[in-house]
Predict the structure.
Amino acid sequence: MSVKWKYGISGSLAGLANGLFGSGGGLFLVPLLTGWAKLDQRKAFASSVGAILPLCLVSAAVYGWKGALDLSLAWPYLAGGFAGGLLSGRIFRKVPVDWLRRAFGLLILYGGVRGVMGL
């Protein structure tokens, strides 16, 4: 299977997760891009971030069309996310890949435990 097909399938899974759960596309993309498509860790993280915006815009448009989007609740998170994105974008190259990998693993573990335990 060509790498382009692997990217397409990875993106489709990310879009599915994003649409169903409101986020989570990056949780699919990073492991698929590193393991399946053989991107190095930093490129997988950066590519995942680059894919998140369009995925979220599509999901938000669908939620808005269905009447399930309340932007008044989202604004504080958007402001904090903007600040966090600026900061992390500036320090990304300085953080060792091992730390990024471990932090990502802990994030997945935390989300999994919360999801399974219903917290």
Notes: The CA atoms of residues 13 and 28 lie 7 Å apart. The first helix runs from residue 3 to 21. Helices lie at 3-21, 25-36, 41-65, 71-91, 97-117.
